[in-house]
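Q: What would this chain look like folded?
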Amino acid sequence: MEQQTKKKPEPERLRSLDALRGFDMFWIMGAEEVFILLGSITGYPVLQWWAGQMTHVEWHGFHAYDMIFPLFLFIAGVSFPFSVAKRMQAEDGRRTLFRHIFKRGFLLLLIGIIYNNGISFDFENIRYASVLGRIGMAWMFAALIFMHTRSWKSRMIWFWGLLLAYWMLFLLFRAPDLGDPDRYSMQGNIVSYIDRLLLPGSLCCFGFGENEGLLALIPAIGTGLLGMLTGELLMTNRKQMQKVRWMVAGGILLMIAGKLWDLIFPINKILWSSSFVCWVGGLSLLLLALFYLIIDVWKKRRWAFFFVVIGMNPITIYLANRIIRWNHANEFFFGGIAALYPENGGALVLAIGYVAIGWLFLYFLYKKKIFLKV
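A: My prediction, written as structure tokens:
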């Protein structure tokens, strides 16, 4: 009688990760407009301050809205060690896993091009760089580093090595074409120069380069790798509160490092500067620690259902906001109510309605167990 080999139990799904992913996506579903209007209407200092955080910083500096993109990449990184543990149990698991890594990376790159009017076939004006492309490529290279290193120490060396190497590029080079001596300015930085030199099609969005260009992929890999290091921590047998303390300590140290580095290498989302990676990486760790503590440690989960519905279908809502004209449905259902209020009040009703329609669309998919996965 043949002895059957027992499969290792699959790691439990982190509910906090789904909720945090949904919380992240919530702010690009129209919620930012809701809070901007609330700040304007109420005049409360806290709401006015938060309303001011709901826009991107033009160049150097940081607003909370700059957090959405790197937090999503960080979360994608956290999920990867769990995916590795699951896929490696399958027959020929390692080969299947590498196939998945490359497929996901390049598929996100392709979807990002399509998102930027890639199917218009106006090749001279297509924007090839994209948010999804950056996520796909950064996650893919981070995953390859993770798979080819054996310990968290070697992965940490890779993380800091990427950030230091990226900083060295700024110290050694600046853009030679526009005559600006400031190596960290819009016109003078080497990152935008490489985009102007090598990227085909059109560039976005500030006249001199790209928001999601080529060289800035280097530190973005660090963001993904930081998430994978965090996922690795969460999979250990350490006590849950110990994991929370490690994430809080790591988050605080990274934020201090980011602020100190900001003195010589400014925090800048478009450049994805090394100081930016540290600052948003620290904030990401603190947010995950908070969600993990409340949802997975204290088991207080009901409040998070609203965000979980979003977090289970993040790519769906991102693409739907581009493809579907929600404003027509919003005007149909909420236009009459909005008309009963003064100008700002009506705008607030429509902003809330926009978020509600998007969420109900995702709730329908959630109940039908329809999830778009890449």
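The two ends are 41 Å apart (CA to CA).
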